[in-house]
């Protein structure tokens, strides 16, 4: 079986969870924009009644403007929706290897007996959750202008301060990581994340191959991998930080990520081909 058929198989398994996450995310973020807008209007009406103000312009002159951006630097439904998606993706990166290994007749046995390289199985299980993550990020990018439009439709322009969507992303720490406007930052964040997943897969395959001994080896392997990729940060905090420019440290970090990922992929495929047991 080819990689593409295995990938299609894994994506079909993820279709329902992806649909549910998309509905939950959309509902929570639409509700967040609606509730934030109504909260702003209700607050303005209470102040206007208390201070005997007759128009929204008077309120704005006395108390300033409302902005959708103010809801991006606090815990709300938007942050909850992001957390739910992140938690599911993180859980699924582990679950994807154990789901087929339970029961009296594990499905993983049939997968391993397919007339195809086990390398294809590894890449399918790695890329399928990543593609779902990309789909959710694309949905998040689409929901930002939707939420902003809902907020604008409810809050009058007289008391509303419009903020560019890019500024909304910069204000929120989570969105600033997930949808960073800087290409270098995006590569850093997602490169680190993908490397972490690859190292996690190596740890899981070590556990599946050697059981309790594999858990110990996997923890040691993960610790070594973390130490290696943190070398640029250690240099940055040491007296040697002046010997390298920031750009050089960034390139060095990417090289270490590539090295750790490459070694982990090679070792994982070796384990899957030679040592993996149900």
UniProtKB/TrEMBL annotation:
Keywords of this entry: Membrane, Transmembrane, Transmembrane helix
TM segment ranges: 14-34, 77-99, 120-143, 186-206, 212-236, 248-267
Signal peptide range in chain numbering: none
Protein name in UniProt: ABC-2 family transporter
Organism in which the protein naturally occurs: Paenibacillus cellulosilyticus
């Amino acid at each position: 079986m080819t990689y593409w058929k295995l990938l299609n198989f894994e994506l079909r398994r993820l279709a329902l969870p992806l649909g549910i996450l998309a509905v939950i995310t959309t509902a929570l973020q639409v509700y967040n924009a609606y509730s934030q807008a109504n909260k702003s209007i209700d607050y303005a009406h209470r102040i206007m009644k208390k201070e005997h103000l007759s128009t929204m312009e008077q309120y704005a002159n006395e108390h300033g403007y409302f902005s959708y951006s103010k809801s991006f630097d606090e815990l709300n439904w938007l942050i909850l929706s992001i957390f739910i998606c992140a938690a599911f993706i993180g859980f699924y990166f582990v679950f994807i290897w154990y789901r087929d290994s339970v029961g009296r007749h594990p499905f993983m046995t049939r997968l391993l007996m397919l007339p195809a390289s086990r390398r294809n199985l590894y890449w399918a299980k790695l890329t399928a959750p990543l593609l779902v993550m990309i789909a959710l990020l694309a949905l998040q990018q689409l929901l930002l202008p939707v939420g902003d439009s809902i907020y604008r439709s409810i809050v009058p322009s007289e008391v509303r301060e419009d903020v560019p969507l890019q500024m909304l992303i910069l204000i929120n720490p989570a969105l600033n990581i997930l949808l960073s406007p800087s290409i270098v930052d995006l590569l850093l964040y997602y490169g680190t994340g993908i490397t972490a997943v690859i190292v996690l897969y190596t740890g899981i395959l070590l556990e599946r191959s050697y059981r309790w001994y594999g858990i110990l080896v996997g923890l040691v392997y993960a610790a070594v991998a973390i130490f290696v990729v943190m070398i640029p940060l250690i240099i940055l905090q040491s007296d040697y930080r002046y010997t390298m420019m920031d750009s050089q440290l960034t390139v060095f970090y990417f090289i270490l990520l590539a090295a750790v990922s490459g070694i982990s992929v090679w070792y994982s495929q070796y384990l899957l081909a030679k040592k993996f047991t149900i």
